[in-house]
């Protein structure tokens, strides 16, 4: 993650809880390296999970990271729309607006 796209709260947590955040980052890196799923797809999956748990900040983060890994806006939106029959239209609609917060910056 480059410093231009890191949320302020994340930077603050890294400063205040260095060991904890290092462990969280190491865990993320380790689980991504454990299988055949490429980085773009991994971030789309993690974004979908963030949508399902209504985590706006995590959706923002994984949209940024998916874009950096080569995902297109269409792929991001489609990954969210695919969730409609599973988690419902209201949640999907909210998530599309969260994704658009980031896509509008691009």
Automatic annotation (TrEMBL):
Gene Ontology molecular function: any one: peroxiredoxin activity
Superkingdom: Bacteria
Segments forming domain Carboxymuconolactone decarboxylase-like: 20-101
Matching Pfam families: CMD
Protein name: Alkylhydroperoxidase
